[in-house]
Amino acid sequence: MKKLDSILQYNYEFVKDEKYKVFETSKHPEKKILILGCMDTRLIELLPKAMNIKNGDAKIIKNAGGIITDSFGHEMRSIIISVYEFNIDEIYIVGHHKCGVCKLESDYILDKAVERGISKDTINMIKASSVDLEKWLTGFETVEMSVANSVNIVKNHPLLPKELIVHGMVICPETGKLDVIINGYNN
Ligand SMILES: [Zn+2]
């Protein structure tokens, strides 16, 4: 069975059996917190469970690395909208150990793109444009540095209130143990 068909088949039963009922909540985050984390598959359920987050508790943004690289990129846009629209008062930037984005090199991804049929001409054309492809695809040096940098971008954003609390943490993708890198209450 194709993946889409299997998802739709499951979905039909899910709705019919009213399995959604245990997830019923509002769009307003109960705990008034926002979490930015990595899209790592080990953290899909582990991260919210390890932080005692249930449906309705928090806004959660995910990307490769759980990282903010741009003060006016998509993650910051989501954060700013959440802070003002949903009265978020604390933000948790949560990196994790053994992250695939740590020490990631752009050529590693671009070589794989070539293997999957992207022509080297296309890559060279993008490299010759104003896009800094290497910087864009290169990962971070250490997760602690990445978290601290992201916290710094949020904490000093000109469109966010100074009283906004921004924490930086690292989670273990096996045990869910959290280590605090930056305690936002002290900043
Ligand atoms: Zn990761």
Summarize this, please?
Helices cover 38% and strands 17% of the residues.
Question: Can you put this structure into words, describing what you see?
Answer:
It is a single chain. By secondary structure, the chain is α/β, with parallel strands linked by helices. It folds into 2 domains: about 120 residues, 3-Layer(aba) Sandwich (Beta-carbonic Anhydrase, Chain A); about 30 residues, no CATH class. The protein is built from 7 helices and 5 strands; from the N terminus they run αβαβαβααααββ. The chain has a 5-stranded mixed beta sheet with strand order 2-1-3-4-5, with helices on both faces. A hairpin with a 6-residue loop joins strand 4 and strand 5. The chain is globular. The mean pLDDT is about 95. It binds zinc ion. Zinc ion binds next to loops.
Set down the secondary structure blueprint.
Blueprint: H1 3-16, E1 33-38, H2 43-50, E2 58-63, H3 74-85, E3 90-96, H4 106-115, H5 120-128, H6 133-137, H7 143-155, E4 165-171, E5 178-182
Parallel strand pairs: 1-2, 1-3, 3-4
Antiparallel strand pairs: 4-5
This protein binds zinc ion.
Q: Spell out which ligands are present.
A: zinc ion
Q: How much β-strand is present in the residues?
A: 15-25%
What is the level-2 CATH architecture name of the largest domain? 3-Layer(aba) Sandwich
Classified in CATH, the superfamily of the largest domain is Carbonic anhydrase
Low-confidence stretches: none
The CATH class label of the largest domain is: Alpha Beta
At the fold tier of CATH, the topology name of the largest domain is: Beta-carbonic Anhydrase, Chain A
**Rg over CA atoms:** 19 Å
Number of domains: 2
Mean pLDDT: 96
Question: Number of helix segments?
Answer: 7
